[in-house]
Amino acid sequence: MRKLYVLLLAVALLLLAPPARAADNGNWAVFPASSPKDSDKLRPGGTPIAAQRPYFYLSAAPGTTLADQVTVTNKTAAPMTFRLYGADAYNTERDGGFAVRTQRETQRGVGAWTQPDRSSVTVPAHASVTVPFTVTVPADAEPGDHPGALVALDEKIAAGQGQLAMGVQQAVGARVYLRVSGPAVPALAVEDVSLAQHRPLVPGTGTSRSVISYTLHNRGNVTLNPKVELKAKGLFGRTLLSRALTRIPAELLPGQKVRLSEPWSGSPQLDWGDVSLTASAKDTTGSGGASFLALPWLAVGALVAALAAGVVGWRLRRARAGRS
Global pTM? Predict the structure, then answer.
């Protein structure tokens, strides 16, 4: 029986690596070329030191061209061939992480403007190759941040096992932070706040919980490092919840929006109030909220049934009195 191969392009760019550390998956690394004063300094194993420039931090005016160099290091015992390309960055839907477009996707920003001198490079075993590249900023480029990466894609496809095998293609990329000169407009919004409540049928017989969902939206043209504060108030303004959220993107890229959620254990079983979220970053804030009504529905249902039975009984008594 023939195998069916599915190509899984794992652009596992290690873009979440801590600051001041080159993108590295253990087999190869991609990072800005060292400055001349660091060119003679090597890490153990022969890797050039790039701590001074863990990422590309570039700035340019519209209509100008920048030149730089990227280094690709092969840490394996065999030669490796890589495809080099520029890619736009975005925030993932799952958790807002920093990710980049694949080569097959349309690039509209720094990914479209980046041109390596070579689109393919072979790096010998335990060696490094430095490739020049240019970033040509269009004359009509919008001011602000244009994040992306310079990606080295392994041209080999690793085949999986079984009748339905996954072919995996891996890539590593060095982040590119390009700022185009012009007005910087930070703008942050909290949108579409909702509350999903889960309570025990019988009040007091279990713990209630809620999930607060919201969209964090960078409406400006610069990258933001947001912080979010969550508050919930009940009847008469009583504070039920107040905390700083931690499960938010470290970087929210221009124009990007991320749907996030926050659990609330021990939420009210009988109350009426509001939840509010306030997001802040440098020179901007945004807020949003939603109201909630917490009722023990089993008790409410019993009360409604009792009232309905009372009304029916009252009508029957009136009808009998009218016939007598």
Answer: 0.80
